[in-house]
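job 3f2a | input accepted
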Amino acid sequence: MLKSLYTEKDLQEIWERRLFQGEGLLTEDARPVRVEFQGTRSLEGGPDFRGARIAIGGVLRSGDVEIHLTPSGWDAHGHGRDSAYSGVILHVVLRRDAFVEPPRDPPLLVLEPHLAGAPAAAAPSGPPDLDALGEEWFEERRARIGRLRGRAGGDEALHRGILVALGYKNNQAAMAELARRRPFASLRGRPAGEIERSLREGAASLPRAMWRLRNQRPANHPWRRLAGMARFLAAAGEEGLARGLPGRATIAAMESWLDPDGTGQIGPTRAREIALNVFVPFLGPEAWRRVAESPPPALPGAAERAFGRAVTTVRRYFGALRAIKSHVPDPTG
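job 3f2a | predicted structure (333 res):
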């Protein structure tokens, strides 16, 4: 058998950067595939990508994506017996196995026929420029929020962005689907108790497999975060989110806005991350210039090990996260 020119990490990179032809994708059982969002690469085990949104056979799904070189990787790695993979909505492989019948579930996409003519990934060399990568992160994030804002309006873009951020790494897909089922327009102007009940009912209506609650710290549990979201939305009232944000353009004001009654159910660390990941890109370049040189949040373990003392600003913080996700070479050597 010929050895593949690609490694599994190469295929993950191709999927993350969408270096394939997006038209004409079909599952092995001939259902058309449209990738709305390829997901966020997971750095801590489990499925390779979290929070993807993919239409399969005309039905839009939210969930995880797993990557292997061939379909047999699914059984070889024991994913069918591991509940951590129950939320996988698409299995992406480079090529078919010879004379091996692929698993029927989850749906299977063979990517190799769609690589010809796709843009090539430039191989990075040398230590990454964290400042440049941070600027790339901001522009990409701003564009993503801008597209959602153009389709659904500012209030819904912020509503979705905050809920997804409250999902942490394991429950982002579920929170994104909850935002679709419980849009801001259905909650505007209602008291906190009613909003919380509506959000909890919407969460309970999702397939159980979408929620990953095992080993969840009580402070990070989605229900606690939904309670905090309800109080935040109630405090926004009829003014809405998009109209109320510009007057709170400092990070401290944004953090305070997310915890209007001091309950701490969103928490200061998550409030700061929401301010940087959602509010600042929504507000645009002027807000970014004000915060880009400020002290960064604490780095996740992988980024801390790779970049450590080099991350001295918010701009470099997001540059480091982008570098880790893109597998840019470690600057320490």
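job 3f2a | The first helix runs from residue 8 to 16.
job 3f2a | closed
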